[in-house]
């Protein structure tokens, strides 16, 4: 036996579910949030995974480097990651905070060379254009054994 009310009820339920799905869909990301996510992904692939091939997808057509031990451009970036992979294979960077200001993404990072290392506090600044990293600055400060306060660096 066929229920004459079933088809209209199913159609109404489908329309309701469709309307709910449309209203609960996530809004598109702002360019600032896209920039943040791109920098976070880049940082993990480059500094933690030491995978230059995976990280270069986040670099723009030019890459200006302000760190005095790294060269400009994609090739300079590849050389820096090769150095990390060879000389500091157990290094790891933990991002404590990230900030976005338009096309700039700023990271507050705790970087260690391996287990037991106090590491360094790093501030990284990235400039992006069209969602791609085109410039980088950093300031690095070693984490001391003793501090004049109990606040910590992070």
Structural features, described:
The protein is α+β, with helices and mostly antiparallel strands. About 35% of the residues lie in helices and about 30% in strands. It has four helices and five strands. It has helices at about 5-25, 30-50, 50-55, 75-85; strands at about 60-65, 90-100, 105-110, 120-130, 130-140. The chain has a five-stranded mixed β-sheet, with helices on one face. Strand 2 (about 90-100) and strand 3 form a beta hairpin. The longest helix is centred in the first third of the chain and has 19 residues, at about 5-25. The mean pLDDT is about 90.
Keywords:
single chain; alpha+beta; 154 residues
Summarize this entry quickly:
Helix content is 36%, strand content 31%.
Name the helix and strand elements from N-terminus to C-terminus, one letter apiece: HHHEHEEEE
Name the poorly predicted regions: none
Annotation, overall tally of beta strands: 5
| Mean pLDDT metric | 90
Strand order, sheet with most strands: 1-5-4-3-2
Helix content: 25-40%
Rg from C-alpha positions? 23 Å
Question: What is the distance, rounded to the nearest whole angstrom, between the alpha carbons of the first and last residues?
Answer: 70 Å
Strand content: 25-35%
Which secondary-structure class do the elements indicate? Answer: alpha+beta
Overall body shape = globular
Largest sheet: 5 strands, mixed
- Total helix count? 4
């Amino acid at each position: 036996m066929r229920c004459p009310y079933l088809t209209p009820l199913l159609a109404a339920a489908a329309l309701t579910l469709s309307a709910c799905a449309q209203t609960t869909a996530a809004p598109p990301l702002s360019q600032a949030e896209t920039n943040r996510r791109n920098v976070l992904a880049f940082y993990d692939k480059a500094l933690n995974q030491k995978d230059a091939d995976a990280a270069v997808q986040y670099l723009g057509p030019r890459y200006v480097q302000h760190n005095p031990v790294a060269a400009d451009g994609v090739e300079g970036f590849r050389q820096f990651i090769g150095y990390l992979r060879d000389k500091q294979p157990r290094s790891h960077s933990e991002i404590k905070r990230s900030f976005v200001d338009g096309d700039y993404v700023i990271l507050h990072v705790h970087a260690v060379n391996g287990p037991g290392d106090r590491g360094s506090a790093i501030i990284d600044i990235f400039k992006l254009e069209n969602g791609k990293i085109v410039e980088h600055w950093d300031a690095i400060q070693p984490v001391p054994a003793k501090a004049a306060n109990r606040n910590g660096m992070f």
